[in-house]
Amino acid sequence: MRIVIIGSVAAGTSVAAKARRNTEEAEIVVYDQGKDISYSVCGIPYQIGGEVESIDTLVPRNAEWFKKRYAVDIFTEHQVTKVNREEKNIMVTDLKTGEVKQDHYDVLVFATGASPFTPPPFDQTSYENVFQVRSIQDNRDIHQFLSTHQPKKALIVGTGFIGLELTEQLTHKGLEVTIVQLEDQIMPSMDADMTFRAEEYLRTKGIILHLEDTVKEILGEKTIEKVITANGAAIDTDLVILAAGVRPNTQLAQEIGVALGDSRAIAVNRKMQTNIPDIYAVGDAAESFSVITGKPVYRPLGSTANKMGRIAGDVITGGELEHRGVLGTGIFRLFDMQIGQTGLTEKEATKEGYEIEVLFSIKPDHAQYLGGKELTIKAIADKKTGRLLGAQAMGENGVDKRIDVIATAISFGAKAEDLFHLDLAYAPPFATTKDPVLYTGMALENALHRNPLITPKELMEKQQNNVSMQIIDTRGKKDYETLHVEGAIHIPLAELRERSKELDPQLPTVAYCNKGVTGNAAQNLLLNKGFKEVYNLSGGNKNYQLYKKMKQQK
């Protein structure tokens, strides 16, 4: 059996390695039009910023190493230009010599990856100071430009992982960074009421944000000196990074009738097989599916690419591995802030037709007497089944382990209540006695049954629609006078038991404190006194004021 793989980054090399581990009988050949193999795209921003000392550390293996270790022939700077599915052969051009040769296969794997999207008007002309980040060569080019030209101002178009990671790294290098983002929020894969926290944080770091805007005009010939946005902003720049997302490389596959999925990536089954026998697709060129909904999704991440590659390599050589889908789990660092997500967001869950409960939990990541810092988790559960659907988290520490725990729970079909019963590691330097994950499960479970939550969004909508209700601020007088929810009356929790007779038990009631805990205590008190409909404001006044500020700015 001769296995030919097109592409040699995470997915392609994983196919080759797993296939060889399973059998010594197969011939395995890999072609890649680039110079480097098996490199870390995700590490490039940190090498540009200087946290990773050498580019070489991002390319731990080369073709010679693979040949020696796995008896796999990898041909770099070789482009596959044509596939003949009937004859099972391919045409390959050596990009260094121009020589064209024919090769044959028994099994063909598309690991062709994805290419950066170039938005207009940048797609009209090439400029010396415009870069994208997708390969080690891009890394080399940016490094050389920084060293040679010493730019002072950078413009970043797009705010996915790469865009925001480079925002951090270029700021560390002393550049003034401006961001232009088409949507009205950064990180469009998350909910706006979470990313607004990050937007506020970026502004404290001196980052200039132009949201819901796009570049319309470019000034400069060989290099861009200034851009004009659709909203009329004039932005001077010495360096432009285009980070507006990627598109799967599917042209070669489409030419031979390989079907695409709804996401426009290559459609595959759980064994990474396409609609054509003996042809597979993996990595950023291939479509995945949601663990929760079962529907096709496109989530081009290195971790998923490695997984897909291993599955394909196993199946091709007689194994039984299957892809089990993804949750879209991701995390990145933004200066001192960690930002992560897994599963469905509120907007995605609503679009999918779920009736959801939304919790904002604001807790220290570990014991405050040992320096614990605030950690915000937004968690979403299905009201009908109690199933946990997703979470987003932000904080200085501990975001990774909370998101990973929740991702694991969702993968195994956990309900909100199951989170509370997890036996998680506890010691004051690492967690609180009621870990943020445990608290999330407890509060969501309460909300799904006796103690409903109301989000700032829902409360404001009721206020705007003049819904009759009573809002109780249970904090101290000073906190209330400093800033409170519009229309709230002040009854501290210590006085609420006696003063509850001042309230109408038949009227919908919202209780709140600063972050949510005392609000829950007030909610329980009023419910025990016979109040019919009592809500706790999720995330308390702090969350409400953030949401209010977001709405005012947008």
UniProtKB/TrEMBL annotation:
The keyword Aminoacyl-tRNA synthetase does not apply. Gene3D superfamilies: FAD/NAD(P)-binding domain, Rhodanese-like domain. Pfam families: Pyr_redox_2 (PF07992), Pyr_redox_dim (PF02852), Rhodanese (PF00581). This is NADPH-dependent 2,4-dienoyl-CoA reductase, sulfur reductase. One of its GO terms (molecular function) is oxidoreductase activity. The keyword Coiled coil does not apply. PANTHER family: NAD(P)H SULFUR OXIDOREDUCTASE (COA-DEPENDENT), PYRIDINE NUCLEOTIDE-DISULFIDE OXIDOREDUCTASE DOMAIN-CONTAINING. Residues 465-553 form the Rhodanese domain. Belongs to the class-III pyridine nucleotide-disulfide oxidoreductase family. Its cofactor is FAD. Keywords: FAD, Flavoprotein, Oxidation, Oxidoreductase, Redox-active center.
